[in-house]
Amino acid sequence: xxxxxxxxxxxxxxxxxxxxxxxxxxxxxxxxxxxxxxxxxxxxxxxxxxxxxxxxxxxxxxxxxxxxxxxxxxxxxxxxxxxxxxxxxxxxxxxxxxxxxxxxxxxxxxxxxxxxxxxxxxxxxxxxxxxxxxxxxx
Length: 138
Description:
Elements: H1 2-5, E1 34-35, H2 51-66, H3 72-86, E2 91-92, E3 97-98, E4 105-106, E5 111-113, E6 122-124, H4 125-128, H5 133-136
Parallel strand pairs: 1-2
Antiparallel strand pairs: 3-4, 5-6
C-alpha cells in the first residue's frame, strides 16, 4: 500500500542534500499514509498532511460538486477502515513543520531550515520570503 501511495518509509542518510526532517528520522520531504495527529492542509499551499486527509478533502470536493453530503460518521468510517487496513505500521509522525515565526503548520516544500547549528529554526516561505530551490524539488 505504501508503494502505491508514495508513502514508503525512506530514512535520512548523511549523504542527503536536504536536512533530516525535524519531527522524525526520515527524509525532509517524507509523505504520510496516515498521521498520528492529522494537521489538515498546509497553511501556505493547502497540500494535505497525509493520504487520508487527501481522501477526506477529495470527498468534500466531490460532495460540493455533486450536492452530496457525507456526514462525520462516513468520514470516520473511512478513517477507521484505513486504520484497520494498515494498523500501527501505517501511522506516521506528522510531516508538517511549525514555522518558528508565524507558528503555522506547513508542508516541508513550503519551508526551510536554518543550516547553522544549533539554530535549525524552520521558517515558512511567507515569513522568510525564500525557500531554497532544492527544498522544493521532489
